[in-house]
Design a protein that fits this description.
Shape: globular
Number of helices: 12
Largest sheet: none
Structural class: mainly alpha
Distance between the termini: 42 Å
Radius of gyration: 18 Å
Order of helices and strands: HHHHHHHHHHHH
Strand content: under 5%
Oligomer: single chain
Number of strands: 0
Helix content: over 70%
Length: about 260
């Protein structure tokens, strides 16, 4: 399996994306913003189609659109009660634009399928460097805002009373989520971002309430799911994205069952 360069690239890409999505996704689930990750992935599809329409690399259109949407959602709804409305408005506008772009560029079927469902086996070296740069940027920014983010997530009213800007934290975090979502879409596609962004994080939170251990478990589970999906795909010739999604669901069900029993 490792005698082929494309398989080496696939495992390297999966490692980068899994670690980032596992760590960022943990805070995403903790803050109850799983829908935001799902919405941003769909918004990213619009950015990718727009980039292809303009003759630009899809990845950078994906990144640009998801970051812009993440910042927009953060600005519109820093309070929990406003988030779903803000996300829905941004998502509906983005999907409308995506439909418009596809209307003007009908010869996009193959690339559109790859964006929707991912194609980790087609990742090349330049894309690996791009993913590594985006991953380092995402984790670096997450480390900078980790303390106020945790405070604002667990006790938002107290955090605001202590001078923490909930809006600023929301904008910064959703921009990070947007970067992680753009990376994750390279592996499982925009329709299945939940598989790596939310599944392992939700599983980890069923298994432990400790922050440090939870973050570690989330990253490890994401790695295990991604690596196993690629390895099984090699031997079965089944779609990698399907296998990663199925394994993520299986891990979540097992973690939920263990969590219930331990409770």
């Amino acid at each position: 399996m490792f005698a082929y360069q494309f398989m080496d690239n696939a495992f390297i890409a999966a490692t980068i994306v899994a670690v980032v999505s596992g760590l960022v996704g943990y805070f995403l689930v903790m803050r109850g913003q799983a829908f935001a990750g799902h919405a941003l992935s769909h918004v990213g599809f619009t950015g990718a189609t727009g980039a292809v329409l303009l003759g630009l690399p899809p990845l950078w259109g994906l990144v640009t659109m998801t970051v812009a949407a993440g910042v927009g959602i953060g600005l519109l709804g820093e309070r929990v009660t406003n988030r779903d409305v803000a996300i829905g408005l941004v998502l509906s506008l983005a999907l409308g634009l995506g439909l418009l772009f596809l209307h003007f560029f009908t010869a996009f079927a193959t690339q559109a399928t790859a964006l929707l469902f991912g194609n980790v086996l087609a990742v090349d070296r330049p894309t690996l460097w791009s993913l590594a740069g985006l991953g380092a940027l995402s984790l670096g920014c997450l480390a900078i805002i980790a303390r106020p983010l945790l405070f604002a997530s667990v006790q938002p009213d107290v955090a605001e009373a202590r001078g923490v800007s909930l809006r600023l934290v929301s904008v910064a975090f959703l921009a990070i989520v947007a970067l992680a979502t753009a990376e994750c879409a390279q592996i499982v596609g925009v329709l299945l971002v939940f598989a790596l962004m939310v599944g392992p994080a939700a599983s980890a939170q069923h298994l432990t309430a400790r922050l440090g251990l939870g973050l570690l478990l989330s990253a490890v589970l994401a790695l295990a799911v991604a690596w196993s999906g690629i390895a099984i795909a090699w031997y079965t010739d089944w779609p990698v994205s399907f296998l990663i999604s199925a394994l993520s669901m299986a891990a979540y069900l097992a973690a939920a069952a263990l969590g219930i029993r331990s409770a």
